[in-house]
């Protein structure tokens, strides 16, 4: 195999089919649709027979020594479902050689194919600076950009109180209309901190329009745009193209002990940061049985467990000792909260798994699940929480690109690895 690798590295694959004496033409045939031995375009299911090049040249005895390479085919599956969509996009396995064809995650650019018409502005409540900015932004979007503007009912009341001219601003009467918003809205603008981005994401139980988050909070990991330059920022976003971060969400379902199967659940929650299962007001340790695709992972005995997205890795999970992960990395962080054990290190699980957290019948107390820090749900003995990657990410516009914005946020927001630079004068390794 080593010789074969080196031959391939030189771009000179010394491979021949037994039936065919003409190497070159046969290899070229293989890259076409079908070969006569039944070799498909994508993958092999006939036998390739390879001859080792060095043994050819080194020894006459070995001249006809033939090495068979076992054929195989790769297929992709998850929870029993077949889904080959990644196959040739991401990994090629031509002629039995597995090679990365494409990255599964890349910097993403959004280019409008028709002009955006409708914008939804979501604002942090009870903030004077947010209210002032909202008034200016609505006016500018309507008068200069001729866009339809939606706001929440509370904000519409505030705007109309400011001036009756704002009667053109649209809103909704009851919450059931929120479920149709994604079909009307081209762009969402948030004015607030990270909590307002979480709020915006939580309004969309399915697909989410691109979000442009303006920073009017204190931290702002997910809010790269500065309100002072809102006209320039929005001009360039409306013109496009823009870099976006596709932030993964987790789909969380509570399955009660009384449910007949795991599909009989209450309304699922979609979280952008994390779902937390903790001891709530109980003074006992949580006792949580954790499974990953039906394999037992561990029992959490401590204050609780955080299942976080990579976007949420800089939030609660970070405070509980989890790693910071670039938001474009797909995965589920499994971070314990104050585990009563010396050896419980946080894990990062792959995106395709389903995590199941169960409160066992011998648990001393129930547990509580909360979703992006909200909507507490009691988990009694026998209840479970299922958590998997949701099919609807949250696209947030980047100031520069997802990597630059992420690094800037950990430097500016957390002062990550800030240390005085060591002075130049002093001992040095001159003789090394
Ligand atoms: N010990 C902790 O660190 C702790 C405890 C509870 C909740 N939280 C976080 O608060 C979030 C809810 O946020 P909120 O604004 O509604 O509540 P909040 O007003 O209590 O703010 C919590 C803080 O977390 C920050 N934050 C939120 N998402 C973040 C992210 N992805 N990366 C970095 N920082 C982030 C916010 O900027 C804010 O400073 C939860 O999802 C949870 O992650 C953290
Ligand atoms: N449109 C909204 N309606 C109701 N609640 C909201 C809305 N926007 C934000 N919130 C809530 O307000 C709280 C504070 O929001 P946010 O985090 O954006 O501001 P902040 O606390 O000033 O920012 P930071 O946390 O960065 O200091 C959050 O809990 C969030 O859920």
TrEMBL record:
EC number(s) per entry: 2.7.1.23
Record-linked Gene3D superfamilies: Probable inorganic polyphosphate/atp-NAD kinase, domain 1, Probable inorganic polyphosphate/atp-NAD kinase, domain 2
A biological-process GO annotation: NADP+ biosynthetic process
Pfam short name (any one): NAD_kinase_C
InterPro entries given in the database record: ATP-NAD_kinase_N, ATP-NAD_kinase_PpnK-typ_C, NAD/diacylglycerol_kinase_sf, NADK
Ranges that cross the membrane: none
UniProt keyword terms in alphabetical order: ATP-binding, Kinase, NAD, NADP, Nucleotide-binding, Transferase
Enzyme class: transferase
Molecular function as annotated in GO: ATP binding; NAD+ kinase activity
Catalytic reaction(s) noted: NAD(+) + ATP = ADP + NADP(+) + H(+)
Family indicated by similarity: Belongs to the NAD kinase family.
Annotated protein name in UniProt: NAD(+) kinase
């Amino acid at each position: 195999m080593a010789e074969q690798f080196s031959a391939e590295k030189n771009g000179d694959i010394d491979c021949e089919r037994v039936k065919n004496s003409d190497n070159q033409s046969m290899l070229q045939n293989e890259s076409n649709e079908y070969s006569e031995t039944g070799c498909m375009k994508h993958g092999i299911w006939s036998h390739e027979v390879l001859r080792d090049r060095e043994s050819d040249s080194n020894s006459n005895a070995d001249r006809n020594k033939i090495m068979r390479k076992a054929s195989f085919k790769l297929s992709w599956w998850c929870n029993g479902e077949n889904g080959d969509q990644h196959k040739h996009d991401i990994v090629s396995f031509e002629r039995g050689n597995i090679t990365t064809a494409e990255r599964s995650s890349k910097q993403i650019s959004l280019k409008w194919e028709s002009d955006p018409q409708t914008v939804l502005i979501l604002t942090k409540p009870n903030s004077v600076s947010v209210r002032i900015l909202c008034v200016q932004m609505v006016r500018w979007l309507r008068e200069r950009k001729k866009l339809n503007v939606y706001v929440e009912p509370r904000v519409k009341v505030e705007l109309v109180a400011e001036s009756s001219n704002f009667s053109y601003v649209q809103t909704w009467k009851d919450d059931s209309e929120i479920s149709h918003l994604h079909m009307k809205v081209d762009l969402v603008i948030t004015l607030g901190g990270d909590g307002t981005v979480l709020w915006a994401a939580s309004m969309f139980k399915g697909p989410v329009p691109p979000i442009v988050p303006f920073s009017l909070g204190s931290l702002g990991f997910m809010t790269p745009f500065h309100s002072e330059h809102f006209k320039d920022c929005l001009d360039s976003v409306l013109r496009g193209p823009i870099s976006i971060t596709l932030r993964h969400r987790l789909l969380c379902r509570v399955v009660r002990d009384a449910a007949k199967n795991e599909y009989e659940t209450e309304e699922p929650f979609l979280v952008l940061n994390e779902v937390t299962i903790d001891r709530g007001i109980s003074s006992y340790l949580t006792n949580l049985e954790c499974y990953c695709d039906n394999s037992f992972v561990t029992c959490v005995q401590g204050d609780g467990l955080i299942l976080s997205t990579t976007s949420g890795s800089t939030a609660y999970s970070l405070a509980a000792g989890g790693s910071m992960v670039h938001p474009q990395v797909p995965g589920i962080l499994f971070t314990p909260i104050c585990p009563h054990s010396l050896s419980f290190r946080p894990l990062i699980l792959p995106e395709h798994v389903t995590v199941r957290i169960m409160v066992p019948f011998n648990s001393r107390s129930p547990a509580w699940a909360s979703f992006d820090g909200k909507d507490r749900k009691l988990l009694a003995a026998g209840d479970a929480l299922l958590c998997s990657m949701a099919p609807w990410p949250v696209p947030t516009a980047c100031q520069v690109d997802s990597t630059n914005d992420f690094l800037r946020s950990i430097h500016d927001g957390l002062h990550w690895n800030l240390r005085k630079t060591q002075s130049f004068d002093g001992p040095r390794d001159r003789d090394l």
